């Protein structure tokens, strides 16, 4: 009897990593889309359209402050009690925060209470997502057969384009089917309500899986550390810093090519919401292609090599991103976003396999979660806000240079990272 193909033999594990992450990223991206399209005028006082968009993107950035806090909290329990139960808890918190946004009053209804509640729930989203990615990556990688680590580790990464496709696709359908008034009054709430169904699906899949093989073996040899974060920072601080630098490029590319680009496209550049969403949805497929190609490359060579190639490509991308986005041609906009997301696949796809090599199993959940979400503060929160500030000053064409800087930081982090043996 021939052994099963690794992907088929582990399909439940891979489904749990992919579907759960897709649900969480769907929740995250519907906020990004709503922040770019409607949250400015609905939740913030009317000074100017540009100022409202800036405030909305700043509220979007709150989650990136919350993510490292969630990474510490969920990392602690992920290293202490296991990956599975921690993943279930993170999904529930993320889902509850997202669902409650659907019921928020607007600024016209409740004044400053409305944006305050929005920011609280945005913090809850970020806190939950802080524990999501690291656990999903370990669920896949720690169950991967030898030589398949990067391909298994790409399962949670593929949740990003799947979640983005679902989020923006639903907004596109609502935009096509509703009048502008209906969309502003209640249509934007529908994606947040729909998240309850998706969270239920994610929970059903995750509750049917077991603990990872690597965690079981590690806890059989020795008891988990009492405070994983303390051991992490005292023994592996250099790896945390290098890992954080290594993830900055992927966050910077994604949120400039999605939230920032959407805000610019539907305001400064004058495209309709439905047209620009359709362009982004088409470009999103290149992210999935890039993730798959990078994962195959990483297993044949190494995750480090794939990331180095992606970092260099990000530096080059930054030189053409701003001019391409502001070129005045929708085809050039599409090609720019497609190229950006393809490059992102190379700095995002191998992360699930690369970051775990930096930390031993007893502190691995904490290590990769803190590194991943720490880098997200700069790449995902600071970069879009700086880009919008440049756009407000009439310097939108120079916003792409932020990507070049992010690529250089990632190149430095990956180059300097020390790789610890997985069994250390």
TrEMBL record:
The keyword ATP-binding does not apply. It is found in: Cell membrane. Keywords: Cell membrane, Membrane, Transmembrane, Transmembrane helix, Transport. It comes from the Bacteria. InterPro entries: MFS_dom, MFS_sugar_transport-like, MFS_trans_sf. Its main location: membrane. The chain crosses the membrane at residues 12-34, 54-75, 87-108, 158-178, 190-207, 237-263, 275-298, 304-322, 329-348, 368-387, 399-420. It is a multi-pass membrane protein. Residues 13-424 form the Major facilitator superfamily (MFS) profile domain. This is MFS transporter.
């Amino acid at each position: 009897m021939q052994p099963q193909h690794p992907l088929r033999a582990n399909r439940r594990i891979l489904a749990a990593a992919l579907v759960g992450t897709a649900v969480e990223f769907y929740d995250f991206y519907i906020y990004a889309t709503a922040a770019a399209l409607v949250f400015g005028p609905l939740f913030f006082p009317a000074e100017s359209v540009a100022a409202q968009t800036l405030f909305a993107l700043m509220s979007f950035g709150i989650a990136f402050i919350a993510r490292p806090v969630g990474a510490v909290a969920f990392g602690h329990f992920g290293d202490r009690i296991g990956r599975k139960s921690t993943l279930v808890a993170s999904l529930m918190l993320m889902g509850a925060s997202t669902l409650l946004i659907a019921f928020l009053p607007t600024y016209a209804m409740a004044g400053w209470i409305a944006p305050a509640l929005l920011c609280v729930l945005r913090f809850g989203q970020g806190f939950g997502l802080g524990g999501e990615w690291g656990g999903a990556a370990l669920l896949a990688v720690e169950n991967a057969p030898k030589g398949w680590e990067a391909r298994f580790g790409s399962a949670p990464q593929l949740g990003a384009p799947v979640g983005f496709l679902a989020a923006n696709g639903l907004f596109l359908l609502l935009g096509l089917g509703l009048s502008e008034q209906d969309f502003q009054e209640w249509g934007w709430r529908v994606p947040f309500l729909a998240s309850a169904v998706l969270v239920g699906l994610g929970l059903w899949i995750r509750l049917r899986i077991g603990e990872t093989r690597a965690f079981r073996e590690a806890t059989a040899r020795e008891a988990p550390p009492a405070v994983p974060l303390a051991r992490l920072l005292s023994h592996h601080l250099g790896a945390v810093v290098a890992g954080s630098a290594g993830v900055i490029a992927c966050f910077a590319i994604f949120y400039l090519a999605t939230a920032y680009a959407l805000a610019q496209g539907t305001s400064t550049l004058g495209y309709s919401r439905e047209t620009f969403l359709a362009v982004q949805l088409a470009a999103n497929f290149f992210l999935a292609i890039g993730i798959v190609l990078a994962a195959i490359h990483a297993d044949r060579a190494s995750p480090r090599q794939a990331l180095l190639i992606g970092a260099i490509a990000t530096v080059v991308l930054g030189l053409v991103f701003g001019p391409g986005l502001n070129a005045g041609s929708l085809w050039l906009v599409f090609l720019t976003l497609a190229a950006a997301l393809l490059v992102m696949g190379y700095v995002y796809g191998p992360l699930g396999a690369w970051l775990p090599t930096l930390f031993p199993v007893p502190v691995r959940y904490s290590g990769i979660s803190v590194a991943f979400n720490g880098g997200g503060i700069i790449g995902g929160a600071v970069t879009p806000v700086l880009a919008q500030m440049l756009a407000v000053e009439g310097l939108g064409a120079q916003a792409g240079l932020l990507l070049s800087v992010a690529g250089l930081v990632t190149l430095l982090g990956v180059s300097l990272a020390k790789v610890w043996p997985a069994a250390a």
